[in-house]
TrEMBL record:
This is 5-methyltetrahydropteroyltriglutamate--homocysteine S-methyltransferase. PANTHER family: METHIONINE SYNTHASE (PTHR43844:SF1). Gene3D superfamilies: 3.20.20.210. It comes from Ferviditalea candida. One of its GO terms (biological process) is methylation.
Length: 365
């Protein structure tokens, strides 16, 4: 009952705690003490080390830990044609804390051409060996949800989402041509659409939640429509993960049918490490027998290991709605959605991932 294609029975979302050497090198680069080339060499060495650690704990899919990024989403988005990064007056508000004030805006027509993360992936692919090199990028929804659109660029909403889908279609093809067979799109907007509090804030911004569901699902389906058959695309849905804090609460019921019976992707990484995610009942909308559901039952927010028997009990509970053969296990999120990282040690991080592997081996013998 193990799987030989992604997502795997024991999997991961992607980001890992930045090593102290990476943190120091980024500070040195910012102060002009080292060059961009020197920083990249240090990143290469640290990524090689972290890939070997992932193999060592038993994972089949390896990532570069997002070691070259400051953010899980902005670094990718602001390197699309027509998008720029800028500093706002305030950051994204989490419970008890706030991110730095960086953001993005659309200043021209969207496109995907010479994106620097193609080279980032090629390096990962070159050191993955017999393991699967997994690439993580933000979902197209995040450009609209988090970005500002300058006036006069896309006054026609239909044109915006058409260009956004086309841009991502080109990105998917480019990563495939670079050797990528496992691509994950990260998306927080769907979890916001499960939160009464966040829906109220959306409406205050002039957004229609029902329209967003339709626009985002159609854009994603358009983007993945022509992907090669041997490329697996999954989506990670997150309620916020910054220095072990969160943003939104609410079960998947408001978006379950659109997601599980509407998006033409291969799997979902679902946050299920706390009661903020609700129960497994929304999984009844999983109708396709080829759709994999990766249960994020192990938290990345703190270091204490979960009781393995409790994790197994919850997997069994989820199997009442989705066949056990369509379920997998992972942490609920990455360990460092931003370069600051969550509040646990690297040793605890590796123990968490090893925990996922060991539990999965017991469940799917």
């Amino acid at each position: 009952m193990q799987r030989n294609e992604p997502p795997y029975r024991a999997d991961q979302v992607g980001s890992l705690l930045r090593s102290q050497r990476i943190k120091q090198a980024r500070l040195q680069k910012a102060s002009g003490e080292i060059s961009a080339e020197q920083l990249r060499q240090i990143e290469n060495e640290e990524i090689k080390h972290v890939v070997e650690k992932q193999k060592e704990v038993g994972l089949q899919a390896v990532t570069d830990g997002e070691f070259r990024r400051a953010w899980w989403h902005f670094d990718f988005l602001e390197n699309l044609n027509g998008v720029e990064g800028y500093e706002k007056e305030s950051g994204i508000q989490f419970h008890q804390t706030q991110t730095s004030s960086h953001s993005i805006k659309v200043t021209g027509k969207l496109d995907f051409t010479n994106h620097p993360m193609l080279e980032d992936f090629k390096f990962l692919h070159s050191i993955a060996g017999s393991h699967t090199a997994k690439m993580t990028i933000p979902s197209p929804s995040m450009l609209h949800f988090r970005g500002e659109i300058e006036k006069g660029i896309y006054d026609d909403k239909e044109e915006l989402f058409h260009d956004l889908a086309r841009t991502y279609k080109k990105a998917i093809r480019a990563f495939y041509d670079a050797g990528c067979r496992y691509l994950q799109m990260d998306d927080t907007s769907w979890a916001y659409l499960c939160s009464t509090e966040q829906i109220e804030q959306m409406r205050a911004r002039g957004l229609d939640p029902d329209e967003l569901k339709a626009l985002y699902s159609q854009t994603i389906n358009d983007a993945v429509a022509d992907r090669p058959e041997d490329m697996k695309i999954t989506m990670h849905i997150c309620r916020g993960n910054f220095r072990s804090t969160w943003i939104s609460s609410g079960g998947y019921e408001p978006v379950a049918e659109v997601l599980f019976d509407g998006l033409n992707i291969d799997g979902f990484f679902l946050e299920y490490d706390s009661d903020r995610a609700g129960g497994f009942e929304p999984l009844r909308f999983v109708k396709r027998k080829d759709l994999q559901i990766v249960l994020g039952l192990v938290t990345s927010k703190f270091g204490e290991l979960e009781d393995p028997e409790e994790i197994k009990r919850r997997i069994n509970e989820a199997s009442r709605y989705v066949d056990l053969n369509q379920l997998c296990l992972s942490p609920q999120c990455g360990f460092a959605s931003t370069e600051e990282g969550n509040l646990l040690t690297e040793e605890q991080q590796w123990a968490k991932l090893r925990h996922v592997v060991e539990i999965s081996r017991d469940v799917w013998k």
